[in-house]
Specification:
alpha/beta; four-stranded mixed sheet; 4 strands
């Protein structure tokens, strides 16, 4: 979470989730449009667990405009203007080891 954002959470207990959504700052900060669809999608697929990364930019105050559904197991903000999270430096590993 950036200083201006919604608190990150992880209710997975170290397990993975079924679906990961990466959104460009809309959910949960903006009402309507794509945010409404994302909220509808998660609520209408209760048999699946979700992780959600909200890509944001800037230090303007942000607050969640939606109550998170119970199957949203992990939420985090990725602030493009912030520093990299600890332990996330360097190259990404691929399945082929490249």
């Amino acid at each position: 979470m950036s200083a201006a954002g919604t608190p990150d959470f992880d209710r997975t207990g170290g397990r993975g989730t079924d679906i990961c959504l990466v959104v460009e700052g809309c959910y949960p900060h903006i009402m309507g449009g794509v945010s409404s669809w994302i909220d509808w999608l998660m609520r209408n697929l209760p048999q699946h667990s979700f992780s959600l990364v909200s890509v944001v930019s800037g230090n303007e105050p942000r607050a969640a405009k939606y109550a998170f559904p119970p199957n949203l197991a992990r939420f985090s903000e990725l602030d493009l203007n912030g520093s990299a999270p600890a332990g996330r430096h360097g190259r990404f590993k691929t399945d082929t080891g490249q």
